[in-house]
Amino acid sequence: MPIHFLNTFTCNAHFPKKWKTGLLSLLIESDQGLILVDTGIGTGDYANPTPFTRIFRVITEMPFDEDQAAIRQIERLGYKAEDLKHIALTHMHFDHLSGLADFPHAEIHLARREYDAFMGKRKSFFDLAYDKKYIAHNPNFKLYDDLGEKWFDFDAIRLPFTPEMWLIPLEGHTRGHCGVALKTEKGWRLHCGDAAGDFRKDIPAWAIRLVLGPHEPRLRAFGEAHPEVELTASHMFLDFFND
Ligand SMILES: [Zn+2]
Q: Which residues lie near ion ligand 1 (Cβ < 5 Å)?
């Protein structure tokens, strides 16, 4: 089951300058067709950016290169949009779902709590990154409740795919945020989404707590206790993609 690591949104900080990050979308060749975990920025946002995307272009340094759109990268791998059958979302912030409309045939899998947060009243500054424009094409959502299952010692929601895939509720960054655990040929991969930063880098704990929520210390400890599980986060630094 090959997994492709796509950078679908480069977003660099003005300060500190060394914080140059991408948005890790996982493209998985499964028994059910291609599955994408998070879309990154889609072609619609490049053609006609939403207000929040425009703000982000000012407060960060974005190359804003449409070649980074998941659809363009999937085409370069020799596939068509229709080959992508499923999209799993860690959460519904603009940088994780902006590309949904590029894959109108795909089923969209996510936690019901996240969908409800997205559809409900904005309650925090970070909720400004929710924009219903991204679902104006009426995507086919499959919403999941937490039924009390476990993956290792994490609460977990099984997705209907082979090889095994689980949503791991890690709420805090948003009210329904989930990581995604994937069974690979080598073992397990836990993609932590926006519940953690790039574990390879020295990011101040206060910044992680403020922006990404409470789970990072537990995830880091889990990674140290389970070196056989590979951990990633959404906003990996650019050297992750280039190496
Ligand atoms: Zn986010």
A: 93, 194
